[in-house]
């Protein structure tokens, strides 16, 4: 059994299933909590989002659910609203790229603020936080493609924040990413890039506090996290694939490590991104942008001096550590009788290693990244912007139409309790 604690408080999953829906709903009602799901329209044709919806339907005490939706038309938005009709709490579908939203955000250019994109998860999260933080004390974020979503996910991730006596301001999820179909290990960007990269950087720069902080997270690229709204309002939001690492950088800047926790959500599966055939595609693009984010954060938090002269050492170290991790994951998979493509993993490490030199070159040319400004700053410029954005995201709607039903997806051994009689039993 793993009892280990480190710099970041770790909430383990001891596999006892100690969930209490009634108590959790009571805690939700005592501290207003909003969930945020950034979403593409394509997710409504997949079973994962229906599973998430059905599971969340048991949260009678939830303050609100915000769907930050990128859609092509107002009719698509109406379909999304119909999909979430009948939930026991308010659901707000916020049209992130709607005409009214674009007009409003373009008007901020007069104040010298560029907040019109680029479109993507970071932009959706930034807008969603602006909407969600209006009337909540806690905001939790989940992706829309989680195929193993169960009632333990929101309960375990939110409860450290609901009880103020814990003093927690930020919670990050971690989990075992396995494919439901093949049972093979997933999460190559974390296992084969971020982990070896941080170890290599520590050997070059020494045990800097920021590197120690990042290495304390068991799954630093997890897209599931929650925070108090006073923290959320003060975070700058990265707008590229470096979103998760960039947010960890912002949290490091604002919060003492004693107020951060990570929570084990157990088995986890969602869409898997391919490696890509070139650096601008798939996981290679993702890893390249993560690399830039990590180096910028080292410069910002530690005053680290980074130069091209360090690249040969970093390349050698990264390849060695990456190849060691491939061997370790191979043993882990073998003993657990999981399929493992060692050759494919080795090739992924080599592809990631080839991103380091051009990645640092780009950083030297453009060391300052584009980040969307914090909502606390925006409120000082325009106190009504949050409410204006919320209203703009709901304009230009036709009447809601019926959303075609989708094939339900069930998590193994999980049955969401949705009826009132079951909830109070």
Walk me through the structure.
The relative contact order is 0.17. This protein has 17 helices and ten strands. Strands 1-9-6-7-5-2-3-4 form an eight-stranded mixed beta sheet, sandwiched between helices. It has a two-stranded antiparallel ribbon with strand order 8-10. The chain has one domain (9-391): Spore Coat Polysaccharide Biosynthesis Protein SpsA, Chain A. The chain is globular. Mean pLDDT is 92; it is low at 399-425. Helices cover 45% and strands 12% of the residues. Strand 2, helix 2 and strand 3 form a beta-alpha-beta unit. The chain is α/β, with parallel strands linked by helices and 425 residues long.
CATH domain class: Alpha Beta
Low-confidence segments, given as residue ranges, are: 399-425
Number of helices: 17
Structural class label: alpha/beta
- Rg (CA only): 21 Å
CATH architecture: Alpha-Beta Complex
The overall number of domains is: 1
CATH topology: Spore Coat Polysaccharide Biosynthesis Protein SpsA, Chain A
What is the helix/strand order?
A: EHEHEHEHHEHEHHEHEHEHHHHEHHH
What kind of sheet is the major sheet? Answer: 8 strands, mixed
What's the count of strands? 10
Q: Please indicate the percent range of residues in DSSP E strands (runs of 2 or more).
A: 5-15%
